[in-house]
Amino acid sequence: MALPKANRLKSRKDFQAVFREGIRRHGSYLTLRALKPLCSTKPSLGTATQTTQATDSAHLASTRIGISISTKVSKRAVVRNRIKRQITAALYNLLPKLSPGWRLVVIVKPTAAESKCVSPQFLQELEQLLAQAEVLDGNS
């Protein structure tokens, strides 16, 4: 179950922005980096203001998520891909609860592969980290 295209964080520029400016929340298996949406628009002349507001509202329409898993977690791609699929499935379940406009990067720690973590554990930890970062709808 892949994330919808509108909810994927793909560009290197976006990942760098989240790593540079985002807040961090740590768990035992995962680290969450979250970058708040830009709510304020700088006033400019005429139509330029309207276009920036339109693009900002388009960006606020969906929360974009990326998953980062290093070879430090496991040298075997099969193991890394399995963990990535489990995290994606957990995020897919949490997607309707997320506040719009956030950019998130989920970083997998090496302990996830060592302890043979399963999907319910990832779901529980992701929910906890998202609540701490105030990304879930009820917390913002």
The order of strands across the largest sheet is 1-2-4-3
Total helical segments: 5
Poorly predicted parts? 40-55
Number of E strands: 4
Mean pLDDT metric: 84
SS strand fraction: 15-25%
Q: What would you call the structural class?
A: alpha+beta
Alpha-carbon distance between the two ends: 27 Å
What summary fits the major beta sheet?
4 strands, mixed
Oligomer: single chain
Provide the gyration radius in Å: 16 Å
Helix amount: 40-55%
Dominant shape = globular
H/E element string?
HEEHEHEHH
Note down, in words, how this protein is organized.
The chain is α+β, with helices and mostly antiparallel strands. The chain is built from 5 helices and 4 strands. The chain has helices at residues 12-21, 46-60, 77-94, 111-114, 119-132, and strands at 23-26, 30-35, 64-68, 103-108. Strands 1-2-4-3 form a 4-stranded mixed beta sheet, sandwiched between helices. Helix 3 (77-94) crosses helix 5. The longest helix is centred in the middle third of the chain and has 18 residues, at 77-94. It is globular, with a radius of gyration of 16 Å. Mean pLDDT is 84; it is low at 40-55.
